[in-house]
Amino acid sequence: MRTNGNAFFSILLMSVLIALATCPAGGAAEPVKPARSDFQSLEGRWIRPDGGYVLDLKDVRPDGSLKAAYFNPRPIRVHRAEAAKKDGAITLFVELRDVNYPGSTYRLQYDTARDRLTGTYFQAVERQTFNIQFLRSR
Asked: What is the pTM of this model?
C-alpha cells in the first residue's frame, strides 16, 4: 500500500506543477478585460478653443451612459449626457441646466480622423445656435 500512496502523491505533485507552469504570472489568473466600446474614445478632457469652455467626459459605458462635467470656467450643472451611434458615427448629447443655462445643449459628433468633437451649441437664453468644436486636452 505504501507504493500506491507514493504514486498518488507523485501524480498530485506533477498535476500541481503542470497547472502552475501553464498558468501565467506564477499561478495568478489574468483578469478578463472588458471589450473597449467605440464610445470610450470620448473619454477625456475637451476644450472649446473659442472661449476656453471645458467638457470633461468620464466612465463612458458601452450603452452610451457617461459622466460629464462642464466648466465656464466654474462648474455648470450637466442635467443629461449620453453617447449614441447614428449612421455609423459616434454622437454626444449634453444638456446643461443651471443659472444662465436653462436647457442649453450640445449636439456633437466625434471626428475620429482628427480626434475632435464638432457640432452645435444651442444657447437657451439667447435662443441661438452656434457651430462649435472641442479639441482634446488630455
From this structure: 0.73
Cell digits of residue 88:
455609423
Long-range contacts of 42-46 (CB under 8 A, 24+ apart): 42/66, 42/83, 42/90, 42/92, 42/110, 42/117, 44/136, 44/137, 44/138, 45/136, 45/137, 45/138, 46/117, 46/134, 46/135, 46/136, 46/137
pLDDT score of 38 = 84
Structure confidence at residue 3 (pLDDT): 52
CA 104, chain centre distance (Å): 23
Q: Give span(s): CATH 2.40.128.30, the chain.
A: 38-136
Mean pLDDT across the chain: 84
Question: For the range 126-134, what are the long-range contacts, defined as Cβ-Cβ under 8 Å and sequence gap of 24 or more?
Answer: 132/48, 132/50, 132/106, 133/48, 133/49, 134/46, 134/47, 134/48, 134/55, 134/108
How many residues in the chain? 138
DSSP, collapsed to helix, strand or coil, labels residue 62 as coil
38-136 carries CATH number 3.40.50.1220: no
